[in-house]
Every structure is written in structure tokens, then in C-alpha cells.
Amino acid sequence: MTDALAHFHFLRPWWLLLILPALGLWWLQRREADTTARWRMVIDPALLRHLIVDGEARRWLSPENLLLAGWIVGILAVAGPTGRQVPSPFAQAARPAMFVLEVTPSMQERDLAPTRLDRARQKMADLLKLREGAPTGLVAYAGSAHLVLPPTPDAAVLTSMAGALAPDLMPRPGDALGDAVKLASEALQRGGAGGSILVFADSAPALSDGSAGAPVTLYAILPPERAATEPSLQAAATTLHADRVELSLDDRDVSALAHRLASAGPPPPASGEGARWEEAGYWLTPVLALLALVWFRRGWMLA
Question: Which chain regions cross the lipid bilayer (predicted)?
């Protein structure tokens, strides 16, 4: 509620200028309806007050007052009061994501059959099925980081390129996780549609910079009994302010990852469309209806 009040504004504020002629007409109507105005010019006001029956009291519930209230409420409704921003109905529903895949000799270990790298690719393919149509890109890293594919809705291309990666194709040995996350963040920024980063790794180096620029999720490609106790991954998750997801033998991990990627970060804006604010003027319709009901009183039009 406080946030809505802080962002309260009118979508069409120029309509509020119509309040000025409304006040002018209301004042002229009251002046013409004042039957004692002509007598004030010839009779002392102190004496006139005692010569007029009910001269001091003016009914607040009068046709001119009610007409002014209805006019002002109608103008406020047309001006478009709003205080809450909502996603555009034409905006892209799925958030982009960048997959960051570690391609090092340790990923060839067979404690996850057939290998850790193959298991990562299998989980990646399962995740792409759940994210059907969502733009997804790929960064591969060992001692250096490389952009394999910018975000694309074509899951088959990403799966094919990921399947061709191997440690002996990487130009330098090592573990450049920080550079890979930075490269993935830059790819998302170039797209201008938000998104998040998912890292597939079995270990991590000591990182000094934790500013990824996008939400990060760290997926531990290790046997479940080892993933929870791997200190390097825990330290990297802390530095990157990342969520950690552990591998499971069923599809629970993939479902959790799909949910995280679908909700992480701000929703992508529609192409060529800025912020969209929820129209709230219709909430004043019942007030206008109540004001209109008073006009059904007997003798009201004559008044």
C-alpha cells in the first residue's frame, strides 16, 4: 500500500484542468440561486439575517453541489489514477537465461555416469524442454571463457553446440568461472531483456568479485553426497550471491531450476513498449453510480 502511494500519479493529468470550469460553473450557479443577493444591497446584512427564513443555512446536499461532486469524480476517473506497475500483456513471458558450462578435465570424472560433463548436458537438455521457447544462451569455460551462443529460442542448436564441447577443445587449462559469469552477464545486458545465469560446475576457484550483474544459480554437478559439502562451491555461491541447487537422480532438480529461471530478475519488456501502469479509474464508477441515484429523488430536478 505504501509503495502504491509513493508511485501514485495520473496517466492523463491534463484532464484535471477540467476541474477549473467545473468550479466556475458551480460558483455561477450558486450566485444565481442566491435570492438574497439583491436584498443585501439595500438592507443591512445584520437585519436581513433575521428577516429571511432559514437564511443562514444552505443545504450541502443540493443539485449544484452534487453535480460538482459528480463532475470532479468523473474527471479523476478519466485522468487515469494509478500507483501499480504491471507487466505488459504483449511482453515476452519467458525470461532469458545464460547457461555457463565448466569444460575441464575434472568434468570427465565418472562418478556421475557416464561422466559429469555428459550428465550436465543431459540435465541441460531436460531443462530446455521445460523452458520451451525461452531464449537461452551458452558460455563455456576452462582457463578462459568463451561465448558459444547468445540467447536464442532454438533449443536444438544449443544442445548440439553443448554436445560438441570437450576439455581438449579449450585453449587454456584452468578455472575462469569469474570471467565466464561476467561474459554471460554481458550477453544478457546486450539483449536488454533481463534474465539470469545458471552455472554448471563441479568446483570453483576463489573469487574476489561478486558483482555478476544478473541473478546467478550455481548447479553442483557432483554426486548428491558430495555436493552439499564441497567447500569451493559454497564459497563461490557466497561470493556471487548465488542460489545453490544440488543434482538429484530424478527430475526434482530440473523442475526447481526451471522455476528459478522463470522468476529470477525483472520481467522482460515488450519490444518498443515502456512501463505499463494499471488503470485504476474504474474504482470510482460505484461513486458515480451513487451520486447518480440521488437524482431520482422526487422534486430534485425542480430544486
Answer: 12-28
